[in-house]
Amino acid sequence: MKALGMIAKDNKSSNRVEYYRLMTFLEILSILLYGFVFLFLLKDSQELVVDRVLTLFIATMAFFSTFLEIEGKIIQYLSLISFYAFTAQILLCNFLNEYSFYHFISLLIAFQAISIACGGIRVSRAYLICFGVIGILGVAFQTDMDYINKFLLCGSIAILSILLFIVIYAKNSFEQKLKFKEEFLRTLVSKTEEGILITNFEGDIFETNTVAISMFGYQAEEIENKNFSVLRKSHLTQEEDDKGVNQILENKFWNDEITLVKQDKSEFDAFVSITLIKNYGQEFLVYRVSDITMRKSSERELVNAKDLAEQAAIAKSSFLATISHEIRTPMNGVIGIANALDNTELSKHQEKFVNTIRRSSKNLLTIINEVLDFSKAESGKMTLELIPCSLKEVIEDVLDLMSRSAIEKNVALTSRIDANTPLDLITDPTKIKQILTNLVSNALKFTNKGVVHIDVRARAKEKRTFYLEFKVTDSGIGIPEEKLSNVFESFTQSDSSTTRKYGGTGLGLSICQKLVNLMGGNIWAKSEEGKGSTFIFSVKTSEYLKESDSAPIILSEVNDEEMLMGYKILIAEDNRINQEVALMILKGLGGTADIAENGKETLEACRQKNYDIIFMDVQMPEMDGLEATKLILDDESSFGSPYIIAMTAGAFAEDMKICLDSGMKDFISKPIMMDRLRSAIAKFRELVEL
Fold it and tell me: How many domains does the chain have?
């Protein structure tokens, strides 16, 4: 009964306990009614007073010790002693021919005490029938009682015997149910995979299951004499203890992951849940302990694997940045010299050679850019820059960029924007251009004749928000149906011969997919081998409502030969070839420049002359471009206030951010593209002319 009293805590269980006590109370009431009958119907009843007092005392003990095993046994023993003592009394009186009806009544009362403590259904029924019949017959054959008293007494004995049997039957039935529930709960607790420890509110253990015993390596009698704090690796501070106690009192539970100690002093990770149970005026704590050593070990392995993966990603990014810088630096010289040669008088053979150099350099640069873009997308370093832009200008920029490739392949490059599509948007135009450029470049690569067409329309429009759908259709070689599902995978082309024939890394479409996903859209393809392909992507965007149209600033038109004329220019560059390339390019724009090979020379040159514009490399010996820039901008009296443009082989967005954060006004990545250089110089002139 003890375990049941600790475990049963729900309302249903409490109601059953109250029912059980009610049955016990009715049993006591029946006994008192017996006493009432005999006290008032019998004239000489002084001999029964002691018997009734003893019976009432035993019944009261039974009521107030319903679930206490030791007291219950005491009641049982006292009742048995009472029964046998009164039985011996009757036998002795009978032997001495001194039997009286009062002694028989004492026997009945003694039996009532027995029925309270151990009244089994079968035994109680036999005793009640036997002594009920004998009692009624004994009363019936009394000669000194009138018929009315006999009738009342016999009826009372019969009714009260039946009532007492019903009460005993109900109480015993309930005891059997409680015993079944107790055994069921004990079995359930013993079969659970969790260790169960039951303590008082101070944490002293007095009940466990076999799992807990096995988990901690103690014998049952050993662990049940310990405090739970002994099983913890580290003892709680007073503050931690108070906090835990308050949480248990407020929420009736507490749980956490802690380290526990076995008997052999070995440690293990555990999840411990503590539940507060209040029953019968007492408080118990039920500890549920789960061994999570394997899980914690797996978590640690995952964390280590994550750290290693992050370190590998950092190493890969660093490696790619270094390789990009090392490749772009000589490429700047190759492309710059090729552009310079193209502006000289060349024979047809020489012109062909120069075009081959330029085309090969451009292809190599495209491959480098694709690898870098893929690396950034894969590492999650790409971010969106949502700004107002013109859809028409985005499409025109892509067409302008790809028109030369289309002309070289004799392929028509066309576009159409649906009339119901807003032209002023808030989106990331750079990402859209990159996606379209990759798709158009891919289409031109596999189209030898016909057309490549860009179609744009708004879908699922709701107020100002809608999906912008782009279709890039070509009349090229198409994609086999079995290969169509793999076209967006990294380093994938329709077959290996495609790479050999058309070139490329197989990263372009994978980059497109990552960019589209970044913009909250989808991309898919339709194709039929030999009849061309259609690549479709949609991105979520919104319409930009202009509050007012401001007139654009129009610079005076100048020829390339006059863009830098009259300005004092300094080139900070440590690579000799890149120095020569920069000088040739700037000379073509009407400028002459001085050279500084590192940051210190740059500072010294600025002390000697107030330069209007400085093209600053970042990675230089002795002092890099970033430090030189900060020193120049911090001391305007010594160095003037030049317009500093980064001209570096760094190609990542982080490189641009670092340069701009240092105070540089613009950023040009090597190899130097003339359009980008003209744009940077135009910004400089715009600032000067304002």
Answer: 5
Q: How many CB atoms lie within 10 A of CB 581?
A: 25
Q: Label the pairing between strands 465-474 and 451-462.
A: antiparallel
- pLDDT tens for 309-361 read 778 777 776 777 677 777 777 877 787 788 778 778 888 888 888 877 877 77
- Token pair belonging to 482: 């079995």
Domain with 604 in it? 560-689
Query: Using CA atoms, how far apart are residues 182 and 188, in angstroms rounded to an integer?
Result: 10
Q: What is the dihedral of CA 640, 643, 649, 654, to 10 degrees?
A: 100
Give long-range contacts, CB 8 A cutoff, 24+ apart: 316-322: 316/375, 316/379, 317/375, 317/379, 317/381, 320/371, 320/372, 320/375, 321/650, 321/651, 321/652, 321/655
Residues 499 and 624 in one domain: no
**Residue 643 structure tokens:** 């317009």
Return the structure tokens found at 164: 């007492």
How many residues are recorded in the chain? 690
**Are 19 and 128 found together in one domain?**
yes
In contact, 220 and 209? CB cutoff 8 Å: no
Q: Which helix (H) or strand (E) holds 457?
A: strand 451-462
pLDDT tens digit string along 537-593? 999 888 876 544 433 434 444 566 778 888 999 999 988 888 888 888 888 888 899
Strands (E), 597-687: 613-616, 643-648, 666-669
**What backbone phi and psi angles, to 5 degrees, belong to 100?**
-135, 160
Both 119 and 142 in one domain: the answer is: yes
Are residues 256 and 233 both part of a single domain?
A: yes
Q: Does residue 550 belong to any structural domain of this protein? A: no
Any long-range contacts for 390-395 (C-beta under 8 Å, 24+ apart)? 390/423, 390/424, 390/425, 391/417, 391/421, 391/422, 391/423, 391/424, 391/425, 391/456, 391/468, 392/417, 392/423, 393/429, 394/429, 394/432, 394/433, 394/436, 395/436, 395/454, 395/456
pTM of the complete model? 0.42
